[in-house]
Amino acid sequence: MTQHNETWNILVVDDEENIRLAIERILNKIGCQVFKAADGHEALQVVESKEMALIILDLKMPGMDGLEVQRRIREIDENVLVIIITGYATIETAIEAMRQGAYDFIPKPFETDHLRFVVRRALKIFDLQREREHLEEERRKTLFDLSTEKSRTRTIMEALPNGVMVTNHQGQIVLMNQAVKDQFDLNDNCSIGNYIQDYIEDPGLCNFVQQTIQQAGCQSDEIPNYELEGANDTYLLVEARPILGEEGNYLGSVFIFVDISAIKQLDLLKSEFVAKVSHELRSPLSTIHEQMALVIQDMLEQASSGRDHQILSRAQEKTKGLISLVEDLLDLSRLEAGAAFHEIQPVKIDVLLDEIVQSLESQAQHNRQNLKLTKKEREYPPVEADKKALESIFNNLIGNALKYTPEGGDIEVILQTLADGLEIKVQDNGFGISEQDQERIFERFYRVKDDKTRFIGGTGLGLPIVKGILDDLNGSISVESELDKGSTFIVKLPAEDKLT
Predict the structure, then answer these.
(1) In this structure, how many other beta carbons lie within 10 angstroms of the beta carbon of residue 181?
(2) pTM of whole model > 0.70?
(3) 459 and 327 in contact (C-beta within 8 Å)?
(4) Is CATH 3.30.450.20 the classification given to domain 160-259?
(5) pLDDT per residue over 245-271, tens digit each?
């Protein structure tokens, strides 16, 4: 028997003192704390004051007999083990005591080894009972803690202003707070356990959830997000966070729905303001530019001062830059409003690139540059898009290549088909772009400035506009560049039958 971490309390109840002392000596040797009582009343007092692991009880005692003592002890502690000590003449009474709950009985006179065996067996039962009670208490405590933690978590979730939705590793929703239900006008009593499409009819959101599950194991600092419309003309931004176990296994995801309606409204007001101001500036600037052109022409005809001509030419150049900025701001505001280009039609991209290259040929010749279009195939599928949008893309890219390539440089536009659409490369051997600048060139108003490019004019809006248009067309743009060796901008467009 394994040693218990506490001393066992054992009560010996017998009217014979020599029996009490003999049992005490035997049990002290096996690590027991022995208490003694000469009759039933004294025994009950001991039981009421101390917790006993075991009681060794004589049946035949003056006054209150053993059966009555056992019954009274059970009223105080129903789990205490009782071993009856009895003479051979009272075996039937001992059996009756066992029927009433006694654990075992020992006949008088008893042998030392037999007494130790029965006591040790009883103490093992007592330890098992104690361990069972301890485990049961721990289970109740764990369940209570779990219940409390669930209640606390639910209370926190319900108090959050943002919508929160939790899915398991299969994509089934296991938790959602009231804010989500309000954002999508769901029934307050709607059950959980289904997939996202059973609650919110938005194919884009369903794809976003599916991609989050598929990419859960990928390590990335970027938090994926998705925008969609909620109920009552609201706009929501959804951010996804995977839930990983201790071993890195995917357990599910948390989706946070943030109401960005106010931000959208602010962006709309900002775009409207920019569009209004730009529109109001364009007409007077154009008039000033044209009048300067006339004045310069008159000065040339009248052979006026070269200094005056230089001043006016510089003013005309600055006016032209302002007009370009205004045009870019108007394009940007239309793009943000979702109304930039709506005349969708099949466009032959090879024909369009021919026209753009021809229109820029004179500028290339003026800069003593070589500009050419290379076509890899004879036939190209059309692109379903607004022609003006595509013109804006390639005018910007080829125009930039001309500006950032020195005299004598080469600019090549390469068109070829891909399995899922078209690829157009605008390649030059100009100044190139550093790795640090490559990360920012698609930011608004960002311009590459160094000793070679600081005198080149521009608004810093051309590439952001190009990227915005391509995003709307389900296309993409990337750049490969090396300082002093040139740059290649790679545009990918879906062909007509690939567009969604």
Answers:
(1) 18
(2) no
(3) no
(4) yes
(5) 877 788 888 899 998 888 777 666 666
